[in-house]
Every structure is written in structure tokens, then in C-alpha cells.
Amino acid sequence: MMRSTHRPAAAAGAAALALSLAACGGGTGDGGTSGGGGTAPRLTLGLNAAPKSLLPTVAVTGGSTLFYTPVYDTLVLLGPDGSPQPMLATEWKYDEAQTVLTLKLRTGVKFTNGEAFDAAAAKANLDRSLKAGANTQALAALAEVAAPDPATLVLTLKQKDPGVVSALGTSAAYMQAPGTFDKPDAATKPVGTGPYTLADTTIIGSEYVYKKNPSYWNASAIKYDEVALKVLGDQNAMLNAVKSGQVNAIQMAPGQKDQVTAAGWQAVAQEIDFAGLFLFDRTGKVNPAMADKRVRQAINLAVNREALLKAVVGGLGTPTAQIFNDGAGKSLDPALDTQWAYNPERAKALLAEAGQSNLKLVLPTTPLAKTLMDAVKQQLGAVGINAELQDAGPNFVTDILGGKYAASYFQFQATDPWYMMQFLLMPQGAYNPLHADDPQLAALIDRYRAGDAAAQQAVLKEINAYVTDQAWFAPWYRVQTVWAVDPKTSVQLLKGWASPYVLSFAPKS
Amino acid sequence: MLSYRLRRTLSGLRQLAAATVVSFLLLYAASGDVARNLMGESATREQVDQKAAQLGVDQPVWTQFADWLGGAFQGDLGRSWFTGQEVTEAIGIRFPVTLSLIVGTTVLTALLSAVLGVWAGTRRGGADRFVQVLSVLGVALPGFVVALVLVTQFAIRLEWFPATGYTPVEVSFTGWLKSITLPVVALTFGGMVFVTQQLRGAVIDTLRQDWVRTLRTRGLSSRRILFVHVLRSAAGPAVSVLGLHFIGLVGGAVIIEQVFTLPGLGQYTIGATASGDLPVVMGIVLLTAVVVFAANLATDLAVGWLNPKARRS
């Protein structure tokens, strides 16, 4: 299945405050297990896939955060509740117009190759992220980055932007030693200021071994001398590794929950991603019928979300018709979950009203999503929508982002509302490939951008209701992301994030 | 014998050239927008085009092939487009894993097949029926099922072997032996069937030959007739099948590598092919072609030594 990789990975090498709390605080609320305070020689995690590269310029979301954050620190740390906390930047403040952000940087920090971390190094990293790579959109609000002195970084924004500080805690702000930017082995011998360094025993793509950085600026946050990330793509191998005690924690497939807990492990879940059809063609550029919101609403009404959820992910999720959540994986507006509840008769009526009783809709698919898409095709067919599935193969993402299709299946990490607006709703958003521009929605987004926290929360609900009513998407359900840990290990999950940090794990005392 | 070797070498080089050209063209045709995959979904078209130019994928296919070939002749297989790792380094790490598997499996297959094939072919009766039943099981049970049974019993229940992972031989010999034992046994279970059957049949046929009867009348011991004369005559077809089995394992060990999460070439190849990482795939193709060529040559030479008539074919 295709899953979102748009979201810059939450970062953090050393979470001084958050991790101290995680390690010592015992209970960790919704998404965590009880913590421990000791240290241990080795932590081994079983993960589904490895990132394409360890270069910050291609760093993306999900489980891959775990591969980067041992090596790269970020300027701020996104804490367990998602709020920015000090990291390489110790404090920050906006000017009155909230278009100039001044950050004070931690002094005395060095990259593991001996280079000094200072404002010039931070500027070099942000400038590079702005110019190229997977994170340009995350920093799109920046007009200029300045380093007036070694401990001060000044970011000038094009306009007020509620997401900039949070972006400094993501892969957009992974701090790599500037002297290694152009080195050919920068991706295999990554150099940052983080708590670990990549060991020579690493087998890229299979097993990543990290050794403790002895001169880390926050040594007390390091709980393991060595961390190994084993890529166990095969689900049986994952279970075998659990049963034989070869790993301490895994990112788990939904169907494994019973077997993993039977082995004495603890499973903790969050609903982060939403899956569904992205109805890109809101202006009818590719398929003119899609410009009619009744057609898009009919597509929403045609799908039996409960049945799909049960068939595809074993029921581990929540059916919904909205794309936003409350930041903790719960419905932002519970009423909207059922706004487009399965109603094939009403779908047929809407299509007839729109004069599209024999609508043809081309949907891209991949071999992995074939079973799911066959079920969707069948359900759409039941209301008279003739869905033609086209195997897009390796071009799936390129094709959908290139605007080739009027609609497509996708699974997307729905965490930060502002990022979602930037990527999904704004005319230049990567996941708005046909550049739909709705003045009413644009005005709402502007109000969100300009408002304070309370106003933003209110406007977000309006945006959510509007997008759901206009059926810009046909979401089916939010999917559970599950982590499981053995009895010797504790983990602090980050609210709304698919992956914890390496420093979020601790041995139980 | 010299001209025989020369002919085989030239034939192997032709196959090597054909394999690289065809693989390159297939990859070129099947790969998607690599630069887009590399740059991420939010990169602009200009950034993607810039990356494509940097990789050289904006060039005509023959220019790209010539560039790759020029580097390969100088021992430079380039770097992975995605991980940035040198292809020779990546292969150097992973090849020993796959080689451990296929050599271990071939040796175990040869030993077990020799014992079972000769036993069934000479004793017949109950021994033969036992080998036949074993053969049916070997064909019927897929390797990954055998692997899962082995893991459950010997790794999880008895904890004799690790369930997943690989220990390099330079780190620990016993660790290495433990990490490859179950995968090798799983691969051998199915593979030995064909070699055993081949040898069994050949032994039965050979034992019926007139010259064997002549040897018996001359007073040679049964043991000497079997191990010195019959086995040499009967081993040719079995060695050919063993050679094919070895070659099949180069690509066929993928599932077992996956079940045991061994960092061999199999998973690496699948990942590189899926992402369109052309330098990596071409490096693996080149290595595989060389291994196949060497295996074929060794098999031909072994068969030629066992049966001098084969040298004239």
C-alpha cells in the first residue's frame, strides 16, 4: 500500500526535558508504557522498512525517523504532546508582527567529526533544506535565514506562519555537519551532533547499528550503549524475532497483536494515518464530472467504510469521513465521521441529479493495493460508477502528484493541521496536484494562519467541516499504528507521530 | 582439454555480455521517475530535473550504458542512487551472506544426495521407498514452510539457533555456523531431491551394465566397484543437476533470506529493482553472471573429468 511520505520526520536526538520525563515519570498516558530509569548495553528494534538514504535531504516520515534521529539533532524537539521544546535551540521568540523568529542556540556543541555547531552551521542546513530535497515545502514560509553571531539564528518569514517552529523539530531541520554536505559517503557515514554515531558494522538496508556518542551534549538522556535497528520486512520474521527474544520492540502489523501480547509484550496503538480516496480533480481538469461536488459526495456515500476497515486492517481503526483529527488520533468532530455513511441509494440519487449515472473514473493502483482497490471498485460499481483500475507500478507517486489522475487511493499521516493544509488543501500543495483553489477555503486558511491558538482551533473545525462537505476527499478510516515492547523495555510514544525517537526507549528498572 | 576450456570460457563471456545488455535495457524500460523518487514528493520539477541531470538519467539509454560499462571496466560500479553507498562495498558486505548459503547448501546437498542416492540405488527395497517418500515431501513442501517449521522447533522452542539474522564468520565462526544452519537445511531439503533421484537412477542403470558384471567376475570387491567405477560413471548427470541447483540458488535463496532476514543479495536486489536503483542492480547482475559463468565452467569441467566423452560435445 502507498503511504504518505510527505511529512518531515519528527526529529530529536536528545530530548533533555521530554526524555527525562519519559524515563522517570512512570505512566505515560495514552500512548506509552511505564518508564524505566536505568541504562542497558543494547536496544534492538524490529522495523518494517529502511529509508532510501540517511541524507537529511531525503529524510521522510514514519518509522524512518528512528534511523535519522540517533545521528541528527534538530533545532527544537517535538515533545510527547507535540509541542516544541528546547534542543539545539535553547529559546526562541517572534517579533511583534510574528514574521521574524530569533533563536538562541546551544553553545559548545560539536558534530561528531569535530566541527563546531553554531549559527552558521544551522543556517547552512536550513538553506540547503530550502533549496532542494524532500523538505522544501516544510520551510516554504522562510524568506531568509541569517546568522548574526555564532549563537543566534534569525529566520525572516514571508508572512506569519503557524508551522515554522514545529518544522524546526522535523527532518527539515536535521543538523548535518556542513563539511560533509558534498562528501560522497555522507549518506553512509552520516555526521551530526546526535546521541549516536552509525557503526561500521551497519549493513545498509538490513541492519543499522549505532554506537553511543561519548561527547554528546546531553549524555544523561542516552539509555543504551548501542542501538540496532533490524529491518524485518517479513511479518513472520518479525514474529519469530519477538518469540525468540531477538528484538526489544517492533512496529507491528495489525494482525500480530494477539501473538505479540501472548509473548508477554505490551502493545500500544495510536490512530494517525487516514486512508481513502483523494479526489484531486475538484475543478474537473482531468475528469469534468468531478467538478460537481454531488459526484464527489456520491463517491463518499458509495463506500462501506466498516466493511473495508474490517477486510483490510482487521478492524483496527475507526471509520471516518473527515481528514483532520484532534492531534491525538481521535475525531476532531465526531459528527463528521458519519456525514457520508454508506448509503448507495443516496449515492445513486446524487449521481442521477448530477447527470452522471454512468460515470467512468480511472484510479491508479499498485500490486500491493490491488485487493483493496478491487473491493473499492466493486462498491463504486454498485452505485453505477465504472472504476477502471490502472496499475501505475513504480510511477504511482509520480503520476498522482503529476496530476495524471482525477482521484487516487492514498494513506496519509494526519498529524499537524497546518502541514495538512499546506500539503493537501493549498493550491500549490504537493497533494493538491491539480491546484484546486477555492476562495472560501483560502479565506478560512488565511484566518487560521493569522489567528492565535484558540482562534486556530475554531477555524480548523470550520475548515474540516467545509472540506468534508465539499468532499475534497473520500476518507474511509483512520488506521492504527501499533508499537509493541518486551517486558524489559519501555517506550514513550509521541502524540500523533507514527514513530517514537530512539531516546524515547528506556530499560525498565 | 585446453580447447574445451577455451570454448567454455568464450561461451561464458558471450552470456555475460548478453546478460548485462539485456538487464540494462529491461531496467531502463521498467524504471519509473528515479529522480522524483529520490527527491521526494514536494520537490519542484526543476529540482527533479536537476537531479536527473546529475544522475545522467536524462541521457539516451546507450550513453548511460556506455558510461556504466566504462566504469565497470575500471572496476568502478558506481554508487547507489539512493543510499550513496559504493556498489562494490555494498555487494562486498552482502555477497558473503548469499555465498555462505549457496555453498553451504550445495555441499550439504551433495553429501546427502550421494549418501541417499547410492543407498537407494544399491539397496533398493525399503531404503528406496524411504528415499522416494522423502523426495515427494521435498518437492511438495515449499522451502519457506520447512524454514518456518525449523525456526519454530529449533530457534524458538529449543533455542539452539537464532531465528533471524546473520553473524559474519570473521566475528564468530560458531555464530556464523549457527546463523546459516537453519537456512541451509531449509534450502537443502527441497534441492537434494533432484540430485538424489538423478544419482539413484544412474546408479541403478550403471549397476546393470555389462562392464560392471565383468568387474565382479574379475573378483573386485563390491565396495571398490561401487565407489571407484560405478559412482564415477553415474555421477555425471547428478553433478550437472547439482550445478543447476547451485545456479538456481543464486536467485532462489531470496525467500529463505527473507524468512531469516539474512542481509544477502536477494532482498537487496528486490529493493534496488523496485526503486530503480540501476547501479546496484547492474552490479548484482554482473556479479551473478560471473558466478553463473564460474559455476557452469566448474560443472562442465567436472562432468568432462568424470566422462571424457562430454568434452567433445
UniProtKB/TrEMBL annotation, chain A:
GO molecular function ontology, one term from the record: peptide transmembrane transporter activity
Superkingdom of this protein's organism: Bacteria
Positions of the Solute-binding protein family domain: 84-425
Family: Belongs to the bacterial solute-binding protein 5 family.
InterPro entries xref list: Peptide/Ni-bd (IPR030678), SBP_5 (IPR039424), SBP_5_dom (IPR000914)
Major localization class: other
Protein name: ABC transporter substrate-binding protein
Native source organism of the sequence: Yinghuangia soli
Gene Ontology CC annotations of this record: ATP-binding cassette (ABC) transporter complex; cell envelope; periplasmic space
